[in-house]
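Fold sample X.
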Amino acid sequence: MEQAVIAALLLVGLVIGTGVGAAYARAKRGWKDYQTARNTVPGARRSAWTAIRAVAVKLGVIVLLLFGAVAYAAVGSDHERASPAPTPTVTPAPTSRPGR
């Protein structure tokens, strides 16, 4: 009977040890992943702000171009406003009068 108790305790210790060991390995992997992510955050943040800045500059240029196009359309082009000067009609001066 004593061997059965020892075998049962050994089996229970093996099951508990396996559970604790798996939990420890999982926690260690999680900690390592956390440290890796934590160290990459400043670089990722810098990259994100660079991308946001690039998009903001492009949007600003597009907005300025659209604003200029709308202002140009509202004012109208110089070609539409310029009217040709009327050309004077030149009539030849009479050289002689009829009947004289």
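Fold sample Y, listed below.
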Amino acid sequence: MKYLLIGMLLLAGCAPTLREEPLIGRAFTPTTKVEILDALPEDRRFVEIAAITAQADQESVDAIVDRAMATGADAVVFGPPYRYGDVAILFAGGNIGGHLAGSINTVPLTRIHARLIKYLP
């Protein structure tokens, strides 16, 4: 049983899950680089292509940047991380006197929002 739990946890951490919400129905040519911003630009006109929500970790940030380039975005605007819940992780130990020994740890889960934008001429 403990190997099943460990395997499930390892599989869950393999690839970031991005929840993308397209904001326009127009397609753009993919780009080779994007700007990383922490606020919407005030000095340039733009259109928002999509909103993405993902786990707040480096793999998700990299996946969002890759997705932005694939959609033709010129910039990614990252919002601050926010806590959305907790996950309980079970650590199975062994059988001691007929009882399963182990522990439960609670880990906070954080997510980030990102907006993919395309600059207008």
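Sample Y note: The first strand starts at residue 18 and ends at 22.
Also: The chain has a mean pLDDT of 79.
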